[in-house]
Amino acid sequence: MPQTIAEKLLSQHNLAGSEVSAGDFLEARIDGAMCHYHAAEPMHDLALEAGFKDGLPRVWDPERVYVLLDHHQPTLSQKLADENALVRREVERLGIRCFHDSEPGIAHQMMLDYGLVRPGELVVGNDSHTLGYGAVNAGATGITRADMLYVLLFGELWFQVPHSVRVTLDGRQPNYPIAKDIVLHLAGEHGEDFAQNMSIEYAGTLVPQLSIDSRMCLSTHGVELGAKFAMFDADQKTHDFVKARSTVPYAPLQADPGASYAREIRVDVDRMPFMVAKPHQFGNVAPVDDVRGVRVNQAQIGSCANGRFEDIEIAARVLKGNKVAKGVRFLISPASQQVYLQCLKAGLVETLIEAGAQVITPGCGICQPRVGFLSDGEVCITSTTRNFRGRKGSNKADIYLGGPLTVAVAALTGEIANPREVISGL
Fold first, then answer.
1. Whole-model pTM?
2. What is the C-alpha to C-alpha distance for residues 51 and 45, in angstroms, rounded to an integer?
3. Is residue 322 left, alpha or beta, with left meaning phi > 0 and alpha meaning psi from -120 to 50?
4. Which site from 17, 174, 334, 407 is most exposed, i.e. has the minimal number of CB atoms within 10 Å?
């Protein structure tokens, strides 16, 4: 019977060895487990609660557990420093080989930077945005810390095979990133839960034109659409990206012709306007023209959704020879040290700083109430992941989500504007 990517993925990882279909339950073999700053809970706290008096007694495979202390680098409190110290002790005791300790960045970006996830693999992480690894044809999803305890011990986990929704993207890749506009369009047009508990498969004529950066944005935001997985086929861009970072063999996945989908959606990106999500919900989406003229106090580019090279490059292009508008704080946080270094070598950081932007430490702080707090009545436009009330501090502040070009134009003009009316040549 023809299978979707998700059905094929879970069939190949089924411990029972049989093919599975949407709706089936199975125990699946796990290829990799990503633990970030919450690693202390499954390794120590939950292990103690489970009756292991000295913490987790072992991990199923020290080569397949990846620990990356991402959210709090450098640490911002004594409590966080003590938690990180506990993780260091546990990692050493358990013999875990892959440990990124004092390196600032976002675990999801670092997983791809260092070639720790490959096409056809089933990878879990204790963070909701683990879906981002679907950009390189991996089945990746976030799990609870209790589930992670089980995975660390046994290297397996139960799944229900998700139904799949096929999203076909047609059109031309313009000379700026559009992945954020695409996912906001999907949420606005079809509801932010249209893929609830499903697997998204991206296809269409646009996909071969999309960079790995853009694919990561779309896969990462799968969780904002309710998805369990969000995957792309492996093409030459995928192979080039992965093989430049890993020598581990892999077997890519592709849906069979005639596979059955719960839903099929088609988007013509050539007809799609710039999109924004208005406060205080990801699905509260409108064309940028509907909110033009809204004054902003802060603009941000970063996060696991849009903190990569192409996102920062478009900001540098917009600001080159210009200045950030008076009264606007423009914060830019690369997704990892590797992305930061890429931007430095390309001269982007110099351009941004000369224009008045603040380039801050790589990591998750820009996305959460850790860096760049908002005061009552302030407005922020950001390319980060979420815009719910209080996400950046004050419950009386407004957060808009937009693509990196829309954010950069707002930083330049001091208000939300249609990029085509500000920047020539788009």
1. 0.96
2. 10
3. beta
4. 17
Question: What does R_g of the chain's alpha carbons equal in angstroms?
Answer: 21
Dist. CA 274–CA 261, nearest whole Å: 29
Amino acid identity for residue 314 in this structure: I
- 114 Rama sector, left if φ>0, alpha if ψ -120 to 50, beta otherwise: alpha
Q: Which two structure tokens, joined as six digits, stand for 275?
A: 């999109």
Is 296 found in the same domain as 201?
Answer: no
CATH number assigned to the domain comprising residue 255: 3.30.499.10
The answer to whether 372 touches 331, Cβ cutoff 8 Å, is yes
| Per-residue pLDDT reduced to its tens digit, 268-327 | 999 999 999 999 999 999 999 999 999 999 999 999 999 999 999 999 999 999 999 999
Residue identified by tokens 């490959």 is 118
Q: Give the residue numbers spanning the domain of 215.
A: 5-267
Question: Which is it for strands 139-142 and 122-125: parallel, antiparallel or unpaired?
Answer: parallel
Last-in-domain residue among 240, 267, 294: 267
Cα(255)–Cα(24) distance, integer angstroms: 18
Please report, in angstroms and rounded to a whole number, the separation of the first and last CA atoms in the chain.
45
Let me know whether 217 and 348 are in one domain: no
**For residues 119 and 252, what is the distance between their CA atoms, to the nearest angstrom?**
5
- Pairing assessment for the beta strands 32-35 and 122-125 based on DSSP bridges: parallel
Same domain, 251 and 338: no
Chain center to CA of 170: 22
- From the list 376, 374, 378, 322, the residue with the least C-alpha distance to 352 is 322
